[in-house]
């Protein structure tokens, strides 16, 4: 029972007893009864003052406790006129004022952090104590290929299907890694932790360094190819000039030795010409012009390109299918370059199948994209990571020029693209043009 209730119970019992005594006095002595009535009025006034001095401070302190329990730091207590109680009230008001300032400061910092996460180009994944994703910012949503945060929050990284998630899963705490998913996507990832109520909470910082990586990579291989091409062309030109003169000299002789020498010289000239063509293939990737863009109907683009492969498909027993949008999707692109891109992609599908298979070419308007699918041998795990690396090829005699050309053209158009093996066994090359 609270002090307030005890006080009122005491008063109730006291006045009942006192009233009974006055009633008895009224039967024997009316003057004594009147004196008792006057004393009763005085006691009421005294008790009211007593309540004000002793129980009201308790009520004030109880109100303060209720406000603290409700985390209401905007209400202050009034002083009651007693030095001891007023000192407690003053300390309480100072404490509440400090708590209110700290809460406002904390909310402002939290709001600033939220704005920073929203605007940051660096992906941030914050985990809970159970190892599930608690918070993810828009940059990380894009990097993980998700539609919204709800598809990540509450799930572990292992449950995300993106290749980057598989790389994050194997990282240990306080580790930094440079992760290359293919020849296009490159991420600098840091796994750190912070303390939350005495418990370590891990988080990931994911910085997309693809553009910087591609820029320096392109600068490097362009310089190497230009140097090699210059040296090879000059050397081969000089050698072929000498070999041509010698071949012409021995062509005037009819003996058997001269014939053998002439054939050897001509073979050497042809080999040098092959070397020139070999270097020219690499140089062609370096010399890709800036795209001259116009409206391009991708359905017509598909028809023009696939018509080139109809004969090869028939010979190998490959069924070439079209699944095109009913509308005519238009993209803003360089027609010759996009035709060559699609030629390279379909050619790779043809080579992956070898014979007796299917190739599907799909277009759609929403989203604006082109898909080339084949049921060939697919991608090995090692090839999946290197497939768009310049001049990489998993073919025995491949130079890796085709996909390097595709990469450079699509990057110049700022089109998203990917090459992946689907769960149903198909291999998909996707070009998203919006």
Count of folded domains: 4
**What's the count of strands?**
12
As a whole number of angstroms, the C-alpha radius of gyration is 43 Å
Euclidean distance between termini CA atoms:
73 Å
Q: Segments where pLDDT lies below 50 for 5+ residues?
A: none
CATH superfamily of the largest domain: Histidine kinase-like ATPase, C-terminal domain
CATH architecture of the largest domain: 2-Layer Sandwich
Order of helices and strands: HHHEEHHEEEHHEHHEEHEEHHEE
Number of helical elements? 12
**CATH fold description of the largest domain:** Heat Shock Protein 90
Beta-strand percentage? 15-25%
Q: Per the principal axes of the C-alpha atoms, what is the gross shape?
A: rod-shaped
Tell me the helix content.
55-70%
* Residue-averaged pLDDT: 81
Q: Which structural class do you get from the secondary structure elements? A: alpha+beta
Major beta-sheet overview: 5 strands, antiparallel
What is the CATH C level class of the largest domain, in words? Alpha Beta
* Biggest sheet, spatial arrangement of strands: 2-1-5-4-3
